[in-house]
Amino acid sequence: MNTSFDESVDQIAAQKLEQLGYQQELKRSRGLIHTLFMNSRSISIAFGLTAPIATSLVGGGPATMIWGWVLLCIFSQPLALSLAEICSKYPTSGGAYYWCFRLASPRHRRLLSWINGWLTMVGVWTSSLSVIFGTAQLIVAEVGIFRPEWIATPWETYLIYLGITLVAGTFAIFFNHKLPTIEILSACWTILGLTVMLICLSVKAQVGRHPASFALGHFDPSASGWNPGWTFFIGLLPFVMVYSLVNFVAMSEEVHNPSIQVPKAIALSVPVGAIYGLVLLLPIVFTLPDITTLLAAPGGQPIGIMFELIMGSRGGGFGMWFIILIVGIFCSISISCAASRATWSFARDRAIPFHKTISKVNHRLGDVPMNAYILSTGIQVLLALIFLGSSTAFNAFVGVAVICLGASYAMPVAILLLNGRKDMANVPFPLGKWGPFLNAFSILWVCFLTVLSSMPAVIPVTKVSMNYASVVFVGFGGISAVWYLLNGRLYYNGPRVPEED
């Protein structure tokens, strides 16, 4: 594609953005490949399925890992298609809260948009936090291979988390113009890494190879304390976060021809991610070491010991771990960047305290919403302090992200369905006659995930094993309600709609 064609496409996209109520402030530098392979399903698979693998083992083991992943991919596709359809008509960084405003009735749209926006904010902050925090736990796990006598304290894990946050921030702020290239590099690294892991794990298998009956059918619910049926769903918790769509939507104003490219990326990410996940999970379940040994790993993070046992040496285990670590670093950069864009967009519509400052774009650093990035990261750093009181904080972060993002995605889909889908006439990405069924299924699936993400992974529940997702969710809900009463109802009028002006 030549440069002149790129410029003409971007000019049309800028004009359409003006029709949606916004001026083009960020540089459009991403195409379909960049959008599809940024930190989301297709790229975060290797990280998202291995970093919290202890929960999958508690949730039943191999059968849950394989069939739970397949089930999640199938049930997530209707939601992806529903959001792709809406995004094709309203491709802005505001995403779901903007969609709610445009789809809802004039009487209720301001309040619904406000609620949705804050759900999105909490969701993107906690999803970014869960990825970066999970990367920190990976480092702790690997140190345990070479120094098994060392057990990281919560403060040491927190300091490692701060270090990764600093690395991600450095790239996101000072190398913003290089992020599309970094995303392509991350895609190449992930594809190459998964290929290497598939071969190495399958060939070495130092603890032996399991028959298909074990790899595809072994299910042990005893570690969770729940009944077998609920244990299976508990094992899905690590997989659910992989299917966050926030990155696609939040980066819409930086994508060429977003009405076409972003919906395609959303729709394709599910099947692409499903294949990636199976390529990673199958060699693991066929060569899985003793599950009891893995669950007894120091710090509750068995990935380092798992790779060491399968590969038969510390060096081999380090090599497998290093592949996942670099993927985690790439994910941390990209998802923190996307969280800042969502924060900037909400501030642009005067819905965040000190919105004038937060919504400024630093053009000297290459069109970076730096203040929004600082706010987004600062909130995540404070939330990470929960880990000092609960070793299961990772599940809490994942749970809050799933609850908030799921609810924020379901709201515009529900409004669309209640309106008889009349707003989706002649959109670039139509669902046609399948639209009502896919929309309804998406809403029911999100309701189920909300319940699942609020539950503790094991029982009986203690203050350490408690899932604090609901506490964080209610806390942020209270903050947003108070701010609406004090300020929002006076100054927040929702996204600007030029034709109504």
Please name the defining characteristics of this protein:
single chain, 501 residues, mainly alpha, Amino acid/polyamine transporter I, globular
Strand content: under 5%
CATH class equals Mainly Alpha
What characterizes the major β-sheet?
none
For CATH, the homologous superfamily is named as Amino acid/polyamine transporter I
What's the total count of β strands?
Answer: 0
What is the N-to-C succession of helices and strands? HHHHHHHHHHHHHHHHHHHHHH
Rg to the nearest angstrom? 22 Å
CATH topology: Amino acid/polyamine transporter I
Which residues sit in consecutive blocks of at least 5 with pLDDT less than 50?
Answer: 1-5, 39-43
What is the number of helical segments per DSSP (H or I, 4+ residues)?
22
Number of domains: 1
Q: Calculate the mean pLDDT score and round it.
A: 81
CATH architecture: Up-down Bundle
What is the share of helical residues? Answer: 55-70%
- Structural class comes to mainly alpha
Distance between the termini: 37 Å
Overall geometry: globular
Main location: membrane
InterPro entries: AA/rel_permease1 (IPR002293)
Pfam family, one: AA_permease_2
GO cellular component, one term: membrane
Describe this structure in words.
The chain has helices at residues 3-19, 32-36, 41-50, 53-58, 62-89, 96-103, 109-146, 154-174, 179-204, 212-215, 228-234, 237-240, 246-250, 258-286, 291-295, 303-311, 314-348, 355-358, 370-383, 393-418, 435-453, 469-491. It is mainly alpha-helical and 501 residues long. The chain has one domain: Up-down Bundle (Amino acid/polyamine transporter I). The longest helix has 38 residues, at 109-146.
